[in-house]
Amino acid sequence: MTNTKILFFAFLIILFSLPFIKTIAQIGDFGTQDPMHAGQDRNKLAPSPDTARVYYFFGSIDSLSLAKLYHVDTSLNYFQQYDASKKNYKYYVGRGNIGLHSKNLIFEPILTEGFNYVHSFLDLYTYKNEEVMYYKSRKPYTELFYATGASKEQTVEVLHSQEIKPRLTVGIKFRFLNSKGAYTNQQSDNKNLYMTMRWATKDKRYGIIANYRRNKFVSEENGGIQNEEHFTTNAYPIRDQMPVNLSNAKNTSVTSGVFFNHYFNIGKPVKKTIDINNIVIDTARLDSIPIAVDTSNVMIEKRKGFKFGRLTHSLLLERSKIYYEDANASNSFYTPFDTPLTTSGFFDSTYVYNLENEFKWTNLDVSNKPEDKKIYFYLGLKHKLAKVNDTIQKSSFNQIIPKAGFSLLLFKKSRFNADGYFVIGDYNKGDVGLFTELIQPLNFKNRNWGNIRFIANYVQRSPDWFYTYYRGNVLQWDNQEFAKEKIIQLGINYSYKNLIINTRFNHIKNFVYFDQTAHPEQHQNSVSIINANVRYAYQLRKWKAEIDLTYQKGVNGVINLPELTANFILTYTKQIQNIAKLQPGIEVFYNTPYFADSYMPAIRSFYIQNTKKLGNHFYGDVFLNVIIKRTIFFIKYSHINSRMKFDYFMTPGYPMQDIALKFGLNWKFYD
User: Quick one: which of 23, 242, 631, 650 has the fewest CB in 10 Å?
Assistant: First the structure.
């Protein structure tokens, strides 16, 4: 018996014997922050005592003002889902190795504002500006993560945040992901970094947040295996001996950027003085993180005044360099799509520069609390300047985007939100966006029946510039006659305890996609896509079963989607005295057969194919999550059923990973 089989059977013994281990002692949960509770008040969740005062927020300073704060997650739940393509109920079409270009299995229309070069299929692994986390913690906070797997897969992630001076907090996050892949010329090499800074004056009348980001991706491109029968018959058990289409091709993408967001409260802070045993505290000078105060003898005096609101200014500067190179340009792999312009090897390069300045006024005030914000509104003006330089042409785009929005509390419980923008300028002239949302708690006769959320969005947008104009050595097009896409999106979301129901209806006119020759095409008729998702978790003592089902109905030949995707997780959580917590489990993913999109390396994009259906395969993982004080680790066998039948493709020509043993470890330091 091989070492792999011995480890596998030992793991199964641990998995199924744990429910019968006698409990010596029990302690409370280490924390609860899993996606099933995403709609709950974050301040009511129960984090680890070590991290009870570690928070973070995203995006801009308004997120902090609107109390959109999140606790650091210290729970075991979903820890084994370390790959971004499998986190938080995301399901992506893979190509057999972690860190490569991938496509969402669940349809989501692009609703970007103003000029956009192209939606990247590496966004999943990119540190984007709107996803940068700014931490709030009195003490230094550090988090380390390491994972390893088959084919020399390595992931290292480091996070540190520290208040180096009163009200001045800096942070850094770095991720290194490298995996050779099982097949020839399939390696991924990703390096991601961001650094943050947050500062405010004593009275919090003026404040700044800023970040620097850099994302570098180097992806080897083998174009898939030459003959799928080589895989289905297991003709090459040693995978890197299997012939592939490309042996010298590679994609490189480097994006760097800086973001600066600062605010000024026009009116003076509204002061509240607290008299505690003749000691007067001016709350306007307190830090935004509460301090412990004995309020047994408290007299509060408010000094009211007119609120002039807040001015904010944001500056975003980004630069991207994208390369595709292949030393063997005469390869027959390209001829069905276009005729290469050179036969001696080629190097396609594109440079994209983006500068954004945005000014905004809101009625937020430094003394506001979330419960005070019965009416919130803003007015804004954004200027965008973009430049795109390829091997042949240089293009510039200059745009002004007025925008406005408001949030209104209705009948003490309901909340209505609305945002809108209009684009003035060259390529995107006339683009508009309107987004509305109604949130209604269902409380009847002192009983909570959950929350229901309605959305209605309308977007009229010019296609991404990449679909309009491109000149490369392999593929070329000029589609400046493309009309604007018009998108109507309606949705209903219902959540109650451990049940979430989410429905979306998307109606799109002039939809742009890549056709069977990997060239952009615009669908002249309207298309409609229905999406319905149900997520439910059932817990019986220490057992927890969780299922996530998504039904979709696409448009064959234009938007190909699996009608059903399903993910099932079964776990058993065991407390071992006051020392550790163990969580063995099983996870299974499945999608129905459909015409899955093919992948073209030269343009880093997926395109329509209507000849071969893929899917109808179960991907099963067994895992064990363990937490010992501040340390969490997992061990799992992914795709344990891969040897039963060799039919697991998610993208034509790209087999998914075989059975693999993986291990991951996370340390959190708070001192």
Answer: 23
3-state secondary structure 309-336: CEEEEEEEEEEEEEEEEECCCCCCCCCC
pLDDT at 521: 96
Strand intervals (E) in 412-484:
414-422, 424-425, 432-444, 447-461, 469-471, 476-478
Give CA 278 to chain center in angstroms: 51
Which has the minimum average pLDDT: 1-5, 120-124, 380-384, 496-500?
A: 1-5
At residue 394, φ and ψ (nearest 5 deg) are -115, 130
**CB 165 within 8 Å of CB 229:** no
- The number of beta carbons lying within 10 Å of the beta carbon of residue 427 is 20
- Between CA 228 and CA 613 the distance in angstroms is 13
pLDDT surpassing 80 at residue 353 = yes
Closest residue by Cα to residue 440 from 420, 427, 454: 454
Q: What is the rounded radius of gyration, in angstroms, for the C-alpha atoms of the chain? A: 27
Select from 346, 323, 321 the least CA-distant residue to 334.
Answer: 346
Locate 573 and state its tokens. 């959580």
Contact predicate 616/593, CB 8 Å: yes
Per DSSP (E only), the strands in 298-431 are: 298-302, 310-326, 346-362, 375-389, 394-410, 414-422, 424-425
Report the distance separating Cα 653 and Cα 96, nearest Å.
Answer: 10
CA pair distance 276, 578, nearest whole angstrom: 40
Q: What letter would DSSP give residue 594?
A: B
3-state secondary structure 60-85: CHHHHHCCCCEECCCCCCCCCCCCHH
C-alpha distances in Å from residue 544, one per residue of 313, 370, 498, 499 = 47, 34, 11, 14
**Single pTM value for the model:** 0.85
Assess whether pLDDT exceeds 70 at residue 42. Answer: no
- 588, β-bridge pairs: 568, 620
Closest-CA residue to 467 (of 117, 193, 165): 117
Cα 214 from Cα 195, distance rounded (Å): 9
Q: Quick one: CA torsion of 563, 496, 492, 422, rounded to 10 degrees?
A: -120
Question: Within 10 A of 398 (CB to CB), how many other CB atoms are there?
Answer: 14
Q: From the centroid of its chain, how far is CA 514? A: 24
Q: What is the 3-state secondary structure (H, E, C) of 520-568?
A: EEECCCCEEEEEEEEEEEEEECCEEEEEEEEEEECECCCECCCCEEEEE
Quick one: tokens of 503?
């429905």
pLDDT (tens digit, 9 = 90+) per residue, 88-135? 888 999 999 999 999 999 999 988 899 999 988 999 999 999 999 999
DSSP state string for 191-235: EEEEEEEEEE-TTSSEEEEEEEEEEEEEEEE--SBS-HHHHHTT-
335 pLDDT band, cuts 50/70/90, is: confident
Residue 54: strand, helix, or coil: coil
How far is the C-alpha of 46 from the C-alpha of 572, rounded, in Å?
20
Cβ–Cβ < 8 Å for 461, 485: yes
**Residues 6 or more apart whose Cβ sits within 8 Å of residue 108:** none
Residue 332 vs residues 187, 335, 338, 468, 625: alpha-carbon distances, Å: 22, 5, 10, 26, 47
pLDDT by residue (tens digit) across 183-201?
999 999 999 999 999 999 9
Question: Helices then strands (H, E): number in the chain?
Answer: 4, 40
